[in-house]
Amino acid sequence: MPSFGFLEDRDAFFMLEALKEAEKAFYEDEVPVGAVIVFENKIISRGYNQVEKLKDSTAHAEIIAITQAENALGNKFLNNCTIYVTIEPCFMCLGAIVLARIKRVVFACREPKFGAVVSLLDIQALSFNHSLEVKEGVLEKESSYLMQSFFQKRR
């Protein structure tokens, strides 16, 4: 097995925390998506899908985590933050990520139907008021397994 640098180890560590959030959604019968936002190597917010629980179509993990992070930092801009998400963000969540000026998005697996970072849109080809770094595939198998288990359970 190849040796990974500090960045990759850190990404796996924080993605594991996002997976813990996704598990909360799974056990509450929500689509199992989890997110954490990190600032200066510390988790400043957590979120998981709560669409059914709150009866709110905007209660995605990313939106909940962004709101908490902005409150934690007392700022609407999250310039030096990284968001870790178990599934590729949708258009709504990508819009919130861009508007919050999050520096980096790390996600586990692609979402071919709604994913707006690489699946349906090439975010790197678009021009925004800041650059957005993207990394995909961190703990992809674990996140995919959780999603598959959820939808098998619902059938």
Largest sheet: 5 strands, mixed
Strand order of the largest sheet: 2-1-3-4-5
The secondary-structure class comes to: alpha/beta
Which percent range describes the beta-strand content?
15-25%
In a few lines, what is going on in this structure?
The chain has helices at residues 6-27, 51-54, 61-73, 91-99, 140-154, and strands at residues 34-39, 42-48, 81-87, 104-109, 133-136. It is of the alpha/beta class.
Question: How would you describe what is shown here?
Answer:
The structure is a single chain. This protein has helices at 6-27, 51-54, 61-73, 91-99, 140-154; strands spanning 34-39, 42-48, 81-87, 104-109, 133-136. It has 155 residues and is of the alpha/beta class.
Draw up the topology in text.
Elements: H1 6-27, E1 34-39, E2 42-48, H2 51-54, H3 61-73, E3 81-87, H4 91-99, E4 104-109, E5 133-136, H5 140-154
Parallel strand pairs: 3-4, 4-5
Antiparallel strand pairs: 1-2, 1-3
Helix pairs in contact: 1-5
Task: List the defining traits of the structure above.
globular, 155 residues, 41% helix, 5 helices, alpha/beta, five-stranded mixed β-sheet
